[in-house]
Amino acid sequence: MHPLDPMADDSETLGEKPIIVLDFDGVIHSYASGWQGINNITDAPTEGAVEAVNAYLDAGYQVAVLSSRSHHPGGIEAMKEWMRRYGFPVDRIAFPDHKPPAVISIDDRGWRFEGQWPSVDDIQRFKPWNR
Known about the structure:
The chain is built from three helices and five strands; from the N terminus they run E-E-H-E-H-E-E-H. The chain is of the alpha/beta class and 131 residues long.
């Protein structure tokens, strides 16, 4: 199986470590002010974000930060600059422009699929944690 095949077993890695994918806005960045543009990141981190990222890295995971910003010019650099300002270990974090295979993804706008599709009503009622 190809090493980047997303259907490979859950232990797939980029390099030697299992990957945790973290969404940026609403997970790492508190996103209290909402969307302000690709390069304009205005709010503080969510409580405990720096500590959690460090704990994942120290436990032997590769942390990959992904966002809708990731594929726009300057988006990744804006996230890196913001994360440096708040003390995240940017040099130990991956910033891919696509979702890599991961052992888990943490996203404020995700639905855990457990074999049953959410209904239209479920989707319409869905709210991220901070709304």
